[in-house]
């Protein structure tokens, strides 16, 4: 498979390119936003790894332009770990993000996961049974009832919903929602899921968030 890395830091770009090449991928490297955009729109790539802070044209602008014409999966690399920055990247059309510094093993897992999923576009509105999530407006409802969520609760629900039917492990949830390596001694994920269930599931007969023993959680309509 052919990958495009858009990264202006020479050492970081070469590190990612070398590691992915040794893992069996064909990898091209671009060092500016315009060069990366040109390569992405004129060549055929299975995945684009895109740094946010780029010269001439930042990653936000690049992914916005990409989504006008192609649906190639995009993985953001960013040193900006503010919640709003991560949400912004996903809303603009990125499929995943990884905060610097990162372990190459984690990058490789993210790459392989996105390649298995294939091209996909982020939906503005996600509907599962009577649950509706308006992503741009950050609005959640079940039936006619509006549900108020915190920022973290929304990120958790959005993650579960956009991958509905897929069992998500606690380490994956922790890395996506909290940018942390999961420690088996912490119950942060379980506590967050319980709080989300109290709002999303407990008042309703049909339950949508399910626990898969020893594996994780899945959001889906059953029965």
Structure commentary:
This protein folds into 2 domains: 2-117, Response regulator (Rossmann fold, 3-Layer(aba) Sandwich), CATH 3.40.50; 125-219, Winged helix-like DNA-binding domain superfamily/Winged helix DNA-binding domain (Arc Repressor Mutant, subunit A), CATH 1.10.10. Helices cover 40% and strands 21% of the residues. It is built from 8 helices and 11 strands. A 5-stranded parallel sheet has the order 2-1-3-4-5, with helices on both faces. A 4-stranded antiparallel sheet has the order 6-7-8-9, covered by helices on one side. Strands 10-11 form a two-stranded antiparallel sheet. β3 (47-51), α3 and β4 (74-78) form a beta-alpha-beta unit. The N and C termini lie far apart (39 Å). The mean pLDDT is 88.
Mean pLDDT: 88
What is the 3D form?
globular
User: What's the oligomerization state?
Assistant: single chain
Series of secondary-structure elements, N-terminal to C-terminal: EHEHEHEHEHEEEEHHHEE
Largest sheet, spatial ordering of strands: 2-1-3-4-5
The number of helical runs is 8
Class from secondary-structure proportions? alpha/beta
Q: Identify the CATH architecture of the largest domain.
A: 3-Layer(aba) Sandwich
- CATH class wording of the largest domain: Alpha Beta
Characterize the biggest β-sheet: 5 strands, parallel
Classified in CATH, the superfamily of the largest domain is Response regulator
How many beta-strand segments? 11
**Total count of domains:** 2
Radius of gyration: 18 Å
Uncertain residue ranges: none
Q: Name the beta content range.
A: 15-25%
CATH topology of the largest domain: Rossmann fold
- End-to-end separation in angstroms reads 39 Å
């Amino acid at each position: 498979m052919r990958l495009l890395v858009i990264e202006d830091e020479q050492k970081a770009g070469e590190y990612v390119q070398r590691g992915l090449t040794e893992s069996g991928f064909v990898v091209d490297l671009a060092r500016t936003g315009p060069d990366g955009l040109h390569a992405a729109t004129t060549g055929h790539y299975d995945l684009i790894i895109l740094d946010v802070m780029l010269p001439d044209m930042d990653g936000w602008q690049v992914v916005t332009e990409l989504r006008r014409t192609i649906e190639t999966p995009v993985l953001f690399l960013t040193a900006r770990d503010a919640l709003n920055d991560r949400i912004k990247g996903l809303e603009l059309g990125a499929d995943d993000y990884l905060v610097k510094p990162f372990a190459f093993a984690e990058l490789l897992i993210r790459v392989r996961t996105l390649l298995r999923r294939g091209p996909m576009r982020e939906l503005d509105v996600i509907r599962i049974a009577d649950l509706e999530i308006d992503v741009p407006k950050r609005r959640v409802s079940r039936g006619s009832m509006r549900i108020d969520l915190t920022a973290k609760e929304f990120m958790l629900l959005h993650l579960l919903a956009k991958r509905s039917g897929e069992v998500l492990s606690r380490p994956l949830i922790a890395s996506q929602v909290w940018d942390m390596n999961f420690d088996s001694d912490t119950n942060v994920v379980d506590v967050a899921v319980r709080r989300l269930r109290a709002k999303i599931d407990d008042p309703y007969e049909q339950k949508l968030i399910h626990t898969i023993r020893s594996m994780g959680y899945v959001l889906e309509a059953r029965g």
